[in-house]
Specification:
The complex is a heterodimer of chains A (218) and B (324). In chain A, 79% of the residues lie in helices and 0% in strands. Chain A is elongated and about 75 Å long. The model of chain A has no long low-confidence stretch (mean pLDDT 92). Helix content of chain B is 37%, strand content 24%. The mean pLDDT of chain B is 92. Classes of the chains: A mainly alpha (218), B alpha/beta (324). The interface between A and B is medium-sized, with 22 and 28 residues.
Chain lengths: 218, 324
């Protein structure tokens, strides 16, 4: 930090709003791809587990192992193969979402009351109709709870991907550090990523309320 | 409302074997079209298993179940279930659907046009005593237990099924609501003409609702007869004990004064003034209570203003014994 420099230079912030918007776009893109692809994979794996419960142990063991690898270490391991690319970043980011999403999808579907399922079968729903029209809608609240955790933690991890050449708000933190600790830029990057996480979480809460009106009826 | 015609349901030597246990053992009986058959027995008697074999939630090990002569095992299960109404004790309403959507379930599965589903839904809610404008858009969580069970019955009747299966449908509501739901159920069943198989462990419910009562024990059918017959002539000690030592009184509750042999040799003027006045529609049980309370040996039976004769205690005694 340069002596005599204030912690935050508001004039610098005012002249860099365009860059913030650009970094926001990058950050959101990295996050959406990670959570989207992660959800698709977790959903497919959940269907496998629901159909063949014996697969649950091995699948969650793999997802759990992925989850425990420190992020920077994982990126370092991938770089020799996939380089400083968005692919490297997304492999890591997707890997971290799997365990949380998988657990919540399965917990949500298994949480459907037995009498509801029995009534559905007894009235002539086909198995596929039960999944899409009964089980998934009823599991939605729990699934979205999983999406919230996955999204918030992915937004945090995207900040780290600046180290392997990706953009997003982490880029601001990194360049701030490289410019002999230009605190204004570092703080801007940090505050913006926190704000994005809070906003995304809030949006998902709203989405959940919108999609599950019956949970508020009592 | 179009009366759905009920179908005949026949069990033909049906058994269900689980590893180490014979849950249902050679069950054979026929429920005539449009009648209510109550399957009653202690827990573990195989009554629910028998019920669930009709819509193939459980597959029989041997034997056949025929609906209007057609073997249910030859039909695709989901198609079969869509034409059999199904009501369970926990109701199993879909929490994420409104009451109207719940009731419209089977018509929707059958691909009825939206307009027709909506009309039918409204009709059914009215039938079960739930004002459509008040209830259609609510969610199940916003209803009381009794209201939910009415929705369950409406949902089961939606596509005018010829057969309806009910598994202890009124078991989880309080006695006052249960009594009201039973009466409404009888009214609706008479109106719709649906054949009903109904499981309960409550003998009073069986006697009140059943056209036929199938008493089961350890997977076997012990007796299959109309309720009056069951009370008058229990097939064995097990049935006698199961229907209760007050079965004579229960039987009187099923019979009316009008159906009894009246003594017409005594003129109106010859009847003691403190003898109670009885109407032909009154049950013999109520008549007996009045006669005992007034310490009279007889009751004067009067239809509106017309004197029909006297009912005596010895006539009632004969009917308790089932001599008539």
């Amino acid at each position: 930090m340069t002596p005599g420099e204030p912690l935050i230079r508001w004039d610098w912030i005012a002249t860099h709003l365009d860059e913030f918007a650009f970094r926001l776009g990058e950050h959101v893109e990295l996050t959406v791809i990670a959570v989207g692809v992660g959800f698709a994979i977790a959903f497919a794996l959940s269907l496998v587990i629901l159909r063949a419960p014996r697969a649950e142990g091995p699948i969650t063991a793999v997802a759990g192992t992925l989850y425990t690898i420190p992020s920077l270490a994982l990126f370092a391991l991938l770089i020799p193969y996939t380089g400083f690319t968005i692919l490297t970043a997304e492999i890591g980011l997707v890997g971290y979402t799997l365990l949380i999403l998988l657990r919540n999808i399965i917990r949500g579907i298994r949480g459907v009351p037995a009498d509801v399922r029995e009534a559905a079968v007894g009235m002539g729903y086909a198995p596929r109709q039960i999944l899409w029209q009964i089980e998934l809608p009823l599991a939605l609240a729990v699934i979205i709870a999983g999406l919230r955790i996955a999204t918030v933690s992915t937004i945090g991890l995207v900040t780290v991907t600046a180290l392997i050449g990706q953009g997003g708000f982490g880029f601001l933190i990194l360049t701030g550090m490289q410019r002999s600790f230009f605190t204004t830029e570092m703080i801007a990057g940090a505050v913006l990523s926190v704000a994005l996480a809070i906003a995304a979480d809030g949006l998902l809460v709203l989405l959940q309320r919108r999609l599950t009106p019956w949970t508020r009826a009592a | 409302m179009a009366n759905a015609r009920g179908a005949t349901v026949e069990f033909r030597d049906v058994s269900k074997r689980y590893p180490g246990q014979l849950a249902v053992d050679g069950l054979s009986f026929t429920v005539p079209a449009g009648k209510i058959c109550i399957l009653v027995g202690p827990s573990g008697s195989g009554k629910t298993t028998s019920l669930k074999m009709v819509n193939r939630l459980i597959e029989p090990t041997t034997g056949a179940i025929l609906i209007d002569g057609a073997d249910v095992l030859r039909e695709e299960p989901t198609t079969l279930r869509r034409r059999i109404g199904y009501v369970i004790q926990q109701v199993g309403l879909f929490p994420h659907q409104t009451i109207a959507e719940n009731v419209g379930t089977v018509p929707r599965l059958l691909g009825w046009p939206t307009r027709r589903v909506a009309e039918r839904t409204e009709q059914l809610l009215t039938l079960v005593g739930l004002e459509p404008t008040r209830f259609a858009r609510r969610y199940p969580a916003q209803l009381s237990g009794g209201e939910r069970q009415r929705v369950g019955v409406a949902r089961a009747l939606a596509a005018e099924p010829p057969v309806m299966l009910m598994d202890e449908p009124f078991g989880a509501v309080d006695p006052i609501v249960r009594d009201r739901l039973q009466n409404e159920f009888l009214r609706i069943q008479r109106d719709q003409g649906t054949t009903v198989l109904f499981v309960t462990h409550d003998i009073d419910e069986a006697i009140k609702l059943g056209d036929r009562v199938a008493v089961m024990r350890a997977g076997k059918l012990v007796q299959f007869s109309p309720p009056g017959e069951l009370l008058a002539h229990p097939a064995n000690d097990f049935v006698a004990e199961f229907v209760g030592s007050d079965r004579g009184l229960k039987r009187l509750g099923l019979l009316t004064v009008g159906g009894a042999d009246l003594d017409t040799t005594i003129a109106r003027g010859g009847v003691s003034p403190n003898a109670p006045v009885l109407s032909p529609a009154m049950t013999l049980r109520d008549a007996l209570v009045r006669m005992l309370a007034s310490e009279a040996q007889v009751g004067a039976v009067v239809d509106r203003d017309r004197y029909l004769g006297v009912l005596t205690l010895s006539t009632i005694a004969r009917m308790i014994r089932g001599d008539t």
